[in-house]
């Protein structure tokens, strides 16, 4: 990927510089608002899906352990299906792959809902959940569209990545609240049905925006010589990012399930979505600020700082003794999430060639979802045996693990981004 760069002078301190009107120009491009609005629906469905499954299964079958296991089975399957779908998108185009994948996913999600309502055995829930894991990664496809629109303009790409992360966090503010609200006020399965409808409608509308769909690209001539034509997962830098995002996902998965269990244990189960939304709200606020500030210093350094901040800010949750203490701590816990994800996305865009961009971004998203599955399953087991009171130790441990992986692999990340840089001149 050919981009502009400007190395930082030796000895220059890291300091922020405000950028005026950072987001307004993003939507001057024709079609940008249309694909963003359409993609929001599908991404909202993803934000609803996990907690909707937990609430539905725990309500119909009376077991958090089973709810965690069903979520784990669904998300762990994405370790195979999502990179495969990303590779197909790079090869055949977004619309040709996303539409049939969304239809298949929605059909099996409907089967999962029926199984839950009929109180089918655990194997039926798990089978339906596994078969429903073909929902396309609309977030990665949207970022690929921004990369096409702003090809070579790294300042605009920093803002686009920041905006995309904030949009993700908005989804994770609204999604859990909507899912839990529907499940508690309408029926246990209502949140999952809403997620199904949004997945199908959002993906179809997104795919219909053909003007901004990136063209299918062949491998760049000569790329084999520098090793950039290899599969993204074979690149050491992507391996580090994948493992780091796996641990980060475990933070989110354990946090989600423990919060649902904790709020129920203190008699406020209907507020689980609101409490989870506070963590996403904190992340959204920090993401907006991060996007309008141009930070001096390299992307690897900023990524490490974000992961370290996430580890530090998760620790206070272990001292939450009630809902009153939990509310502000959840907002604070989200403050480092967006900066970590924004810089992580930028690193991935540097580490993979453009013709493998969907696959590369989907790998880290898959790792994130796989980590959510792992965190959810472990948290379900922990809560069943030890209660939710000490459950917030789990996301704290996972955040420390993410920091350890990122720090250990920092040299590989720097080696991967040495040479062509995606950093804008204003950010270095």
Automatic annotation (TrEMBL):
Q: Is Cell membrane a UniProt keyword of this protein?
A: no
The chain positions of domain Major facilitator superfamily (MFS) profile read 237-428
State the PANTHER family in the record: MAJOR FACILITATOR SUPERFAMILY (MFS) PROFILE DOMAIN-CONTAINING PROTEIN, PTHR23542
| The entry's keywords | Membrane, Transmembrane, Transmembrane helix
- The protein's organism comes out as Streptomyces fragilis
- The protein in question is named MFS transporter
Matches recorded under InterPro entries: MFS (IPR011701), MFS_dom (IPR020846)
Q: Name any one Pfam family assigned in the record.
A: MFS_1
Chain segments annotated as transmembrane: 32-57, 64-85, 97-118, 189-208, 238-262, 274-295, 302-323, 329-348, 360-383, 389-413
């Amino acid at each position: 990927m050919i981009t502009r760069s400007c190395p930082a002078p030796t000895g220059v301190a890291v300091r922020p510089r405000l950028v005026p009107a950072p987001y307004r120009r993003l939507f001057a491009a024709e079609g940008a608002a249309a694909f963003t609005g359409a993609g929001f629906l599908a991404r909202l469905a993803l934000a609803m899906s996990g907690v909707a499954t937990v609430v539905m299964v725990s309500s119909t079958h009376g077991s958090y352990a089973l709810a965690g296991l069903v979520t784990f089975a669904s998300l762990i399957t994405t370790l195979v299906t999502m990179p495969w779908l990303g590779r197909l998108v790079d090869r055949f185009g977004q619309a040709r792959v996303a539409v049939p994948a969304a239809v298949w996913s929605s059909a099996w999600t409907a089967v999962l809902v029926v199984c839950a309502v009929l109180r089918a055995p655990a194997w039926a829930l798990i089978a339906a959940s596994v078969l429903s894991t073909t929902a396309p990664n609309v977030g990665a496809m949207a970022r690929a569209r921004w990369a096409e629109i702003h090809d070579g303009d790294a300042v605009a790409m920093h803002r686009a990545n920041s905006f995309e992360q904030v949009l993700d966090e908005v989804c994770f503010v609204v999604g859990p609240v909507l899912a839990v609200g529907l499940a508690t006020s309408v029926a246990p399965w209502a949140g999952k049905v809403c997620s199904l409808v949004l997945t199908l409608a959002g993906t179809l509308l997104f795919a219909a925006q053909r003007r901004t769909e990136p063209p299918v690209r062949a491998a760049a001539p000569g790329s084999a010589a520098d090793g950039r034509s290899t599969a993204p997962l074979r690149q050491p830098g992507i391996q580090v990012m994948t493992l780091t995002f796996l641990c980060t996902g475990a933070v989110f998965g354990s946090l989600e399930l423990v919060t649902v269990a904790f709020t129920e244990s203190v008699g406020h189960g209907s507020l689980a979505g609101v409490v989870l939304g506070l963590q996403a709200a904190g992340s959204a606020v920090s993401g907006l600020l991060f996007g309008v500030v141009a930070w001096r210093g390299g992307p690897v350094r900023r990524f490490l700082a974000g992961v370290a901040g996430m580890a530090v800010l998760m620790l206070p949750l272990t001292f939450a003794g009630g809902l009153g203490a939990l509310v502000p701590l959840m907002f604070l816990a989200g403050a480092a999430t967006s900066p970590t994800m924004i810089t992580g996305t930028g690193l991935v865009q540097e580490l993979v060639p453009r013709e493998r961009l969907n696959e590369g971004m989907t790998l880290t998203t898959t790792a994130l979802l796989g980590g959510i599955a792992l965190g959810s399953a472990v948290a379900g087991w922990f809560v069943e045996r030890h209660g939710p009171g000490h459950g917030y130790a789990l996301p704290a441990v996972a955040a420390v693990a993410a920091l350890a992986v990122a720090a250990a692999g920092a040299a590989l990340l720097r080696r991967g981004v040495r040479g062509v840089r995606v950093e804008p001149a204003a950010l270095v």
